[in-house]
Amino acid sequence: MILYNVTVNVNEEIADEWLDWMKSKHIPDVMSTRLFTDYKIYKIITDDEGSTFSVQYFLKSMDDYENYLKNFATALQSEHTERFRDKFAAFRTIMESA
How many Cα atoms are found within 13 Å in the side-chain-facing hemisphere of 69? Predict the structure, then answer.
């Protein structure tokens, strides 16, 4: 099992809008690639700087992740960047179950 984790810190004034958009638009678009088996979204409660979220997407294999990167990631990430430009910071982590 592969976990693709995206940690996103968003400006406090857009946190509700961002979360609504993620749940109604972005996450469904990611899941519609049919490469991910499940997802979870968590608000990190130990952060005092804005609002930080962990969006976790689960895949069966690294091949599925590489397929996502090659065929879908650029467009999906660009849409997010254009909508929330200069109002967020994100980093991505890939993990494998041990």
Answer: 10
User: CA 31 to CA 12: how far, in whole Å?
Assistant: 26
Strand order in the sheet with 51-59: 36-44, 51-59, 2-10, 88-96
Residue type at 3 in one-letter notation: L
User: Nearest to residue 35, comparing CAs of 65, 3, 74?
Assistant: 65
CB 97 within 8 A of CB 1: yes
Q: Please tell me the pTM assigned to this model.
A: 0.91
Residue 24's SS3 state is helix
The string of pLDDT tens digits covering residues 45-97 is 976 677 999 999 999 999 999 999 999 999 999 999 999 999 999 999 999 98
**Which CATH class for the 2-96 domain?**
alpha beta
- Which string of DSSP letters, residue by residue, matches 30-74? HHTTS-EEEEEEEEETT--SSEEEEEEEEES-HHHHHHHIIIIIH
